[in-house]
Amino acid sequence: MAELLITGIRRLWQADPEGRMGWQAGAEMRELPVLHNAWLLCREGRIAGFGPMATCPEGDFHRLDAGGGDVLPSWVDSHTHIVYARSREEEFCHRIEGLTYAEIAAKGGGILNSATRLREMPEDELFEQALERLLEVVRMGTGAIEIKSGYGLTPESEWKMLKVIRRLRDQAPIPVRATLLAAHALPPEYREDRKGYVDLIVNEILPRAAGEGLADYVDVFCEKAFFQPDEMERILEAGWRHGLRGKVHTNQFYSLGGIQAAIRQRALSVDHLEVVTEEDIRDLLEAGTLPVLLPSAPFFLKDTYPPARRMIDAGLGVALASDFNPGTSPSGRMSFVLSLACTQMRMRPEEAVHAATINGACALELDRELGTIAPGKRANLQITRPIPSIAYLPYAFGSDLVETIVLDGNIYT
Ligand code: NIG
Ligand code: FE
User: Which residues pair with 406 in a beta bridge?
Assistant: First the structure.
């Protein structure tokens, strides 16, 4: 019997009888819909209904007593790099000694370090490691995830990464979206031939990735020492020709016009945005492009945080994601991302929850399926132990507050 009735819910967050789509922006992000003392019914993997305990349905259901805990939709982590060959804690130690991320990258560390290792590692081993990371974040409340390539930087190795992501998609208990990030760094073989590498992406890597259904999106790391706005535009244009929309890394260290280039190419999201001008914010607002903020990267690099407060006060919607990767954010713990959003970017707890649920779902075009508790949406949920308020979630940043995970209407063990 594929029905699960959850009772004894102290607060059901993102309760959404109408099935909201689209992201929350500006002042809307402050209001988090909630139903007190509630039940929730899941049927065949979907949310079938919910209401106050006084209206709780009778019947022969599987039952789960939430024990006075709160229920939220699962986190949607819309930006990760969890397929990688090896951790990079030696770079972490170099930064402690005083080197910057850019200095380490210039010495062949950083992304190129990961690329050397990944090229040597067989697909099966990469898959096993990435699956372990994926299952780790599922236990921490992530109920949908995006994963990028970008540590291969040759046609064969980029496709190998995308094949690993496809296997993850086929075996993971949660939805997985794949993004081609061949333009993550200039590979050493092309050090003197930037155009040659962009040509290779546009003419070979991207068409095959799209043609074989290995990618849903295309990404470019637009940054001073990486790819320039015009190179990004060429790649995003090629993406459109092959049915892949852009989701880009931009304005992590410098504002070079990457946001405007992404807007011109109708990118779905612009991610990072640690360094933005007032003009950048105005342009994003006018274009209706979604910023995805990744505060664990500036936390780990001891860098500047994106001005989330200014963005939301200006009327923008923002999403939050983990950027789980071996160099700048070796963690996929979304609850910590919410804590950083509140403490370091002055986001309100309610805004952070919107940013990590419905807005994250929008950053992956999964808002029809996930992000709120709505009839017909996928029943991917997290149930907390009893907590005093929603603010307690980002406040108690070191505690594991999620007690039960429900995926597709089943208790995940
Ligand atoms: O999102 N900024 C570019 N890419 C990753 C870092 C990748 C790495 O250092 O391995 C990021 O922070
Ligand atoms: Fe990233």
Answer: 381, 411
Closest ligand 1 atom number to CA of residue 323: 1
Tell me, in angstroms, the distance from the centre of ligand 2 to residue 383's CA. Answer: 28
pLDDT tens per residue across all 413 residues of the chain = 589 999 999 999 999 999 989 999 999 999 999 999 999 999 999 999 999 999 999 999 999 999 999 999 999 999 999 999 999 999 999 999 999 988 998 888 899 999 999 999 999 999 999 999 999 999 999 999 999 999 999 999 999 999 999 999 999 999 999 999 999 999 999 999 999 999 999 999 999 999 999 999 999 999 999 999 999 999 999 999 999 999 999 999 999 999 999 999 999 999 999 999 999 999 999 999 999 999 999 999 999 999 999 999 999 999 999 999 999 999 999 999 999 999 999 999 999 999 999 999 999 999 999 999 999 999 999 999 999 999 999 999 999 999 999 999 999 99
Structural domains in the chain (count): 2
Is the dihedral angle over the CA atoms 178, 180, 184, 189 positive or is it negative?
A: positive
Whether residue 54 sits in one domain with residue 110: no
Q: Is 185 exposed, middle or buried (0-12, 13-18, 19+ CB in 10 A)?
A: buried
CATH number assigned to the domain comprising residue 148: 3.20.20.140
Question: Do 63 and 206 fall into the same domain?
Answer: no
Distance 374 CA to ligand 2 centre (A): 30
What tokens does 208 get?
Answer: 């095959």
Same domain, yes or no, for 283 and 347? yes
Q: Are residues 308 and 400 in the same domain?
A: no
